[in-house]
């Protein structure tokens, strides 16, 4: 059975049929290709298959596998922290260890579309739209055959996002336009080949012609595979297209929540979601499903070995295991939950004395909340917190110390106790200064990515940070450099190194010294948020909006979008030491649901002018250029 959410009308489909005929013909040829590489055409279809598409299909299907290597949607710090702290959560799929049985497979399609069309390459993309679609479908088919879902295959493409996500989307798309311009300039200077119409990755936004074409081709491809491939026939296939509002991963979680409310839902359903985004880990934990795995492409990451300074080498057994690997890795949420149980079970006696029942599900919910403070797509991270310098470890220590004294949990069914959150953030504020010092010390050691006794990121070409992520970190360092040099307060690697060097040689200000203890905080608010020391109303409003953001994010992960129009109206977060119980007590947190934006409204909100010509319909593009 095939269910296509957001499918266009039959009239519109017929109108676009002629334009899509060529690529659909290539998709059909690609789908019918046997393992030998020959094209297997049924006799009754041979006459209708476009012959011009045959060579293109062969070329793309024979492309090296490395062209389909997918990179994570964000910085892999959270995944690396989990892998270092809880090493048995990951399980490689090898020739000796097969894939477990999967009932439901969920695919966040944007995590496939981006790498298959442009990846993180710094070269100009020289592929036609048809070739891009064929790469997407080839990878999609491989995923289905690797996992063999038995009951459900859910494909979710990002629709219009909540307003809270649009600030980040706008930043990324303006960066992408700048990157494309830089690539064109470099290619021109080198005398290299420049495509007639260079691919602009900003067209991967709901409402563009590219997404409409891809959606129509996916409709065709799914129907074809269900009709001719036994692996696709077993599950029900649902496609939630770009016309359906919501981010792909959250549409998936909404489907899971809805199914769990149905009578007769099997409690031992086996779920698998594909993607390299760290958000999927927290969403999987928030589902509370006992059998949930994340399928990822295996990353070339090795924790450092004790007593060795450089990257570790593989021993014989590890080398043999690598040879057997099929390039896939499973992260088991059940094992991660067991680890969290082992981590927190030492609190059992203290909790019993306070009359608090030990509940692993509530502990998991609290852990998900803690992870938000080190960064997410909707809020800036608290300035002192960085996973690389042990921020999550510090928060876990504080949480384990406070939980028995509270006599209750931090969260309850998607709601946050602001009183207990204030206590937690106050304790976090007490170590804020020491966190800044630790980051400065890490930079002084010459390795900004070094973490005192935790892990070390090994940057390699295959999965290092994307150019966008590197530039964002460089921008953050540059903005704070002058501030740190003047006042001895650091928020990034470059200026933290200068702080540590200055303090080590007897020159330079120590954190807070000679500044009245709080003057560095006043300077932070004045320079980054334009808040004067006497502007207590402005600081209270900043804190209100930040706590609103924390509550919005938590509800978004557990209940779905509680407000389509809410967003955090600042570029920087308040300092943890100012998030006191007195300020949080009595805050009124309310949201108005509102309605999603229309696709063209989102396009006008997030796209730069440089992308208007190919990403926005003519009349809207003209409006953008004129205004």
List the helices and strands and how they pair.
Blueprint: E1 2-5, H1 10-31, H2 52-61, H3 77-85, E2 90-94, E3 104-108, H4 110-117, H5 129-147, E4 152-156, H6 163-190, H7 209-228, H8 230-233, E5 236-240, H9 248-260, E6 271-274, H10 279-287, E7 292-297, H11 316-324, E8 325-332, H12 333-344, H13 348-353, H14 360-372, H15 391-406, E9 411-412, E10 415-416, H16 418-430, H17 432-444, H18 467-487, H19 493-504, H20 519-529, H21 536-558, H22 581-584, H23 599-606, H24 612-615, H25 618-626
Parallel strand pairs: 1-5, 3-4, 3-6, 4-5, 6-7
Antiparallel strand pairs: 2-8, 7-8, 9-10
Helix pairs in contact: 1-2, 1-5, 1-7, 2-5, 4-5, 9-10, 15-16, 17-19, 18-19
Structural commentary:
The two termini are 47 Å apart. The radius of gyration is 26 Å and the shape is globular. A hairpin with a 2-residue loop joins strand 9 (411-412) and strand 10 (415-416). It has helices at residues 10-31, 52-61, 77-85, 110-117, 129-147, 163-190, 209-228, 230-233, 248-260, 279-287, 316-324, 333-344, 348-353, 360-372, 391-406, 418-430, 432-444, 467-487, 493-504, 519-529, 536-558, 581-584, 599-606, 612-615, 618-626, and strands spanning 2-5, 90-94, 104-108, 152-156, 236-240, 271-274, 292-297, 325-332, 411-412, 415-416. It contains 25 helices and 10 strands. Helices cover 50% and strands 7% of the residues. With 627 residues, it is of the alpha/beta class. It has an 8-stranded mixed β-sheet with strand order 1-5-4-3-6-7-8-2, with helices on both faces. A two-stranded antiparallel sheet has the order 9-10. The protein folds into 2 domains: 2-305 and 322-334, Rossmann fold; 338-584, no CATH class.
